[in-house]
Specification:
Layout lengths: L1 E5 L6 E5 L4 E5 L2 H7 L4 E7 L3 E4 L3 E6 L5 E6 L6 E6 L2 E8 L13 E3 L15 E2 L10
Parallel strand pairs: 3-10, 10-11
Antiparallel strand pairs: 1-2, 2-5, 3-4, 4-9, 6-7, 7-8, 8-9
Length: about 140
């Protein structure tokens, strides 16, 4: 299956093929700040399943255990569209909302539960982690 994710203005796009390896809701404070929402949802695909198109700016931040997180966003509208993480070097994480597809597969992981807003709940079963899951666990 091919899917297209794009920023608000359409300048930065990502085409994905196949099914994602992981769909994870992240409640860490950095994702809360990045999205302006109580959590972010990232969809992890193997690198060869993802093709970015268009200009992007990179923001690099520290992740867990000294690893880096590289977030790519549109320089025109500011939408964060995808990321690369040292924790999962063989994957690219696309922000779920940029697909704008209500039928997209729902999260199967909920990470950084220790900073989850207590009123956030899922109607389905998810694997829950107090912090991030390790590269070997998912």
């Amino acid at each position: 299956m091919n899917r297209i994710a794009r920023c608000c203005c359409g300048s930065l796009r990502v085409e994905t093929t196949g099914e994602p390896a992981i769909v994870a809701a992240c409640h860490c404070q950095e994702c809360q700040r990045r999205t302006g929402a109580p959590f972010g949802v990232s969809v992890y695909f193997l690198k060869d399943q993802v093709r970015p198109e268009g200009a992007s700016k990179e923001y690099v931040r520290d992740g867990q255990e000294g690893r880096k997180v590289r977030i790519y966003f549109c320089p025109t509208c500011g939408t964060s569209v995808y990321a690369r993480t040292d924790a999962r070097p063989d994957h690219i994480a696309v922000t779920l909302g940029t697909f704008a597809d209500p039928s997209f597969p729902r999260p199967t992981y909920s990470v950084w539960e220790q900073t989850r807003h207590p009123w956030v709940a899922f109607e389905h079963e998810v694997d829950r982690f107090p912090q991030a899951f390790s590269p070997a666990s998912g």
